[in-house]
Amino acid sequence: MDDKQTGAWLPRLEAMVESGDEAAFYSWRRWRRLRAYVRKLDNNECQLCKAKGRYRRGTIVHHVKHLQDRPDLALSIWDPDTGERQLVTVCKSCHEAEHPEVLRHQDVKKPPVTAERWD
Ligand SMILES: [Zn+2]
Ligand SMILES: [Zn+2]
Questions:
Q1: Ligand 1 center–CA 25 separation, angstroms
Q2: According to a count of CB atoms within 10 Å of the terminal CB, is the N or C end of the chain lower?
Protein backbone atom coordinates (compact mmCIF):
# COMPACT_ATOMS: atom_id res chain seq x y z
CA MET A 1 0.00 0.00 0.00
CA ASP A 2 1.41 3.36 -0.83
CA ASP A 3 0.65 6.60 0.90
CA LYS A 4 -1.36 8.08 -1.91
CA GLN A 5 -3.87 5.26 -1.59
CA THR A 6 -3.92 5.47 2.19
CA GLY A 7 -5.51 8.88 2.06
CA ALA A 8 -8.63 7.67 0.30
CA TRP A 9 -9.87 4.96 2.63
CA LEU A 10 -8.41 5.78 6.05
CA PRO A 11 -10.76 8.63 7.02
CA ARG A 12 -13.69 6.44 6.00
CA LEU A 13 -12.45 3.53 8.10
CA GLU A 14 -11.74 5.76 11.08
CA ALA A 15 -15.27 7.11 10.91
CA MET A 16 -16.60 3.55 10.76
CA VAL A 17 -14.56 2.49 13.80
CA GLU A 18 -15.75 5.54 15.69
CA SER A 19 -19.40 4.73 15.07
CA GLY A 20 -18.92 1.00 15.71
CA ASP A 21 -19.51 0.06 12.09
CA GLU A 22 -16.08 -1.37 11.40
CA ALA A 23 -17.55 -4.76 10.51
CA ALA A 24 -18.36 -3.25 7.13
CA PHE A 25 -14.63 -3.09 6.48
CA TYR A 26 -14.59 -6.85 5.98
CA SER A 27 -16.75 -6.57 2.93
CA TRP A 28 -14.47 -4.08 1.20
CA ARG A 29 -13.16 -5.39 -2.07
CA ARG A 30 -9.61 -4.34 -1.33
CA TRP A 31 -9.69 -6.14 2.02
CA ARG A 32 -11.00 -9.33 0.41
CA ARG A 33 -8.28 -9.14 -2.20
CA LEU A 34 -5.57 -8.51 0.37
CA ARG A 35 -6.86 -11.29 2.61
CA ALA A 36 -6.68 -13.76 -0.24
CA TYR A 37 -3.13 -12.61 -0.94
CA VAL A 38 -2.04 -13.06 2.70
CA ARG A 39 -3.50 -16.54 2.87
CA LYS A 40 -1.61 -17.49 -0.24
CA LEU A 41 1.55 -15.97 1.21
CA ASP A 42 1.12 -18.20 4.27
CA ASN A 43 0.10 -21.29 2.25
CA ASN A 44 -3.20 -21.28 4.14
CA GLU A 45 -1.33 -22.39 7.25
CA CYS A 46 -1.96 -21.02 10.71
CA GLN A 47 1.21 -19.09 11.47
CA LEU A 48 0.73 -19.23 15.23
CA CYS A 49 0.40 -23.02 15.19
CA LYS A 50 3.33 -23.19 12.83
CA ALA A 51 5.46 -21.24 15.30
CA LYS A 52 4.71 -24.01 17.81
CA GLY A 53 5.63 -26.70 15.32
CA ARG A 54 2.07 -27.75 14.55
CA TYR A 55 0.35 -27.78 11.22
CA ARG A 56 -3.14 -26.42 11.07
CA ARG A 57 -5.08 -24.94 8.22
CA GLY A 58 -5.55 -21.22 8.60
CA THR A 59 -8.75 -19.69 7.35
CA ILE A 60 -8.68 -16.27 8.99
CA VAL A 61 -6.43 -13.30 8.35
CA HIS A 62 -5.88 -11.56 11.64
CA HIS A 63 -4.83 -7.97 12.36
CA VAL A 64 -1.98 -8.29 14.88
CA LYS A 65 -2.62 -4.70 15.92
CA HIS A 66 -6.37 -4.72 16.10
CA LEU A 67 -8.38 -2.81 13.58
CA GLN A 68 -10.03 -0.69 16.26
CA ASP A 69 -6.66 0.38 17.67
CA ARG A 70 -4.76 0.91 14.44
CA PRO A 71 -7.12 1.49 11.52
CA ASP A 72 -4.16 2.96 9.66
CA LEU A 73 -2.64 -0.55 9.54
CA ALA A 74 -5.85 -2.20 8.38
CA LEU A 75 -4.44 -2.89 4.92
CA SER A 76 -0.76 -3.33 5.77
CA ILE A 77 0.76 -6.79 5.54
CA TRP A 78 3.81 -5.54 7.45
CA ASP A 79 3.90 -3.36 10.52
CA PRO A 80 6.10 -0.37 9.68
CA ASP A 81 6.86 0.22 13.38
CA THR A 82 8.25 -3.22 14.16
CA GLY A 83 9.03 -4.70 10.75
CA GLU A 84 6.95 -7.73 11.77
CA ARG A 85 3.84 -9.07 10.14
CA GLN A 86 0.70 -7.07 10.77
CA LEU A 87 -1.60 -9.37 8.81
CA VAL A 88 -1.21 -13.04 9.53
CA THR A 89 -3.10 -16.20 8.63
CA VAL A 90 -4.45 -18.02 11.68
CA CYS A 91 -6.81 -20.87 12.52
CA LYS A 92 -10.08 -20.35 14.31
CA SER A 93 -8.92 -21.41 17.76
CA CYS A 94 -5.78 -19.26 17.63
CA HIS A 95 -7.88 -16.37 16.46
CA GLU A 96 -10.28 -16.71 19.35
CA ALA A 97 -7.33 -16.69 21.72
CA GLU A 98 -6.19 -13.43 20.14
CA HIS A 99 -9.59 -11.81 20.67
CA PRO A 100 -10.80 -12.42 24.21
CA GLU A 101 -12.82 -9.22 23.88
CA VAL A 102 -14.87 -10.71 21.05
CA LEU A 103 -15.73 -13.80 23.04
CA ARG A 104 -16.93 -11.63 25.87
CA HIS A 105 -19.14 -9.70 23.52
CA GLN A 106 -20.55 -12.89 22.09
CA ASP A 107 -22.03 -13.75 25.44
CA VAL A 108 -24.25 -10.72 25.43
CA LYS A 109 -24.85 -10.21 21.73
CA LYS A 110 -27.02 -12.22 19.44
CA PRO A 111 -26.74 -13.60 16.91
CA PRO A 112 -23.21 -14.93 17.43
CA VAL A 113 -20.76 -13.34 15.06
CA THR A 114 -19.01 -15.50 12.54
CA ALA A 115 -15.27 -15.95 12.73
CA GLU A 116 -14.91 -14.44 9.30
CA ARG A 117 -16.27 -11.18 10.51
CA TRP A 118 -13.50 -10.74 13.04
CA ASP A 119 -10.58 -11.26 10.73
ZN1 LIG B 1 -3.57 -21.90 15.07
ZN1 LIG C 1 -8.21 -10.90 14.55
A1: 23
A2: N
